[in-house]
Amino acid sequence: MGRIIGALAALVLIIALIAAGWYYRPWSPYSPARITALDDPEEFAQTFQRMDEILPSRRIEAVDPQPLPEELAPLDATYSFNGETRTIDDFMSSARTLGIVALRDGVVVGERYGQGADAQTRFTSWSVAKSFVATLIAMAMEEGLIDSLDDNAAKYAPVFEGTAYGETSLRHLLMMSGGVEFVEEYSEDSESDIRPFFFNAFILGRDVDVMAGEIVRDRPAGRDLHYVSPNTHVLSAVVRNVFDDTLAGIVEDRVWTPLGMTSDATWLTNVDNERAIEVGYCCLQATTRDFARFGQFYLQDGVWNNERLVPEGWVERATRPNAPFQEPGPEARYAPRGYGLHFWIPPDAEREFFMAGVYGQYVWVDRDRGVVVAMNAGDPDWGEREEEAFALMRAIVQSVAPPDESEGEPDAEPIGAADGDQAGPEPESSIDSNPAASEPREPPQ
């Protein structure tokens, strides 16, 4: 009996040592033990400044940095919310804001930082990265690598052949109308599929393409707005295949270098070895200034340094509803926000749109006033504070836009824009290979 007890004790000890080794991974700079910081909302403001120290990533180099011109002035916007007059300092304190940058006509006119961050700090994007992936889809169309948004994903990413995603069109994935069974909630007590998906990718190091291919269909695609992050990962797999490169490498070649981003960035991967795949629905780390520059690229209709990088009409199509179920308003699925092709539309939008990530990441674009506002935060209560964030960003726009710009004509040519490519009325879309598909379509019945 004593021998049996001793053997069992030794077995338990061995299992405990193996589990401890797996959890702490002393042979690796990345371990589940370090990732526990992501479960502590009180640490978000610090954790989001060092995500690429906690999780593996690929670097995106700023190969040819071109700093934006500056006309800096104090950023001291005030706004009204819930019957109170509040200041930008009030918001930054309550929302644990890490960085805010405002551009007017491509010029940095104001910036603020908090929580120990500065202009060189890289912040995580969360779902702001989705808009980058959508842009790469558009760039692939501009380069002739994708024939039509109505093509199914498996045509360009054969790994999804025979899966629900494989038979879903790129258009429906961009519309967040993929028709798959997936629950995406971010409250701590919610039953959500996104948390185990994240765990399997970053803790267990599973192949993210395979994981996405395991998701099943529960409704026809194109029928409703259902925000599902793996939709974007599938699009990122399409991007990787058509450009034949890593996602980080494509972002470096097609976005960071042409736009003259001034700081290196990173994109998180599931593992730290040759099998690494970027988790495409989130996880781009960049400075707030570089996030703002990406917004400026959209303000300029996808033109930079006299070169069109996305199809004519893409920006207009991507930043407005493509079906009735995407319209903003009190009855919207994600009220009051509406949706386009991986871009959000605020309520009462007047040629405004924004990119968004959980916990307070935004890139806000006001095309009439020629202003971009980028903001990063580590706000556990971001969901309850979103409409206040809209009020603040609109107040910042008003504070930096000269009064005579309220009707929409910028006072200077946007930086890097082609002749005649200032923010103004968009041409008819030319992004669809099939002319019959060039107008927004009703969802199938």
UniProtKB/TrEMBL annotation:
Keywords for this entry?
Answer: Hydrolase
- Source organism (scientific name): Marinicauda pacifica
Stretch list, region Disordered: 398-445
Task: Please list the GO terms describing molecular function.
Answer: hydrolase activity
What name does this protein carry?
A: Class C beta-lactamase-related serine hydrolase
A Pfam family per the record:
Beta-lactamase
Superkingdom of source: Bacteria
Q: Which residues form the Beta-lactamase-related domain?
A: 86-395
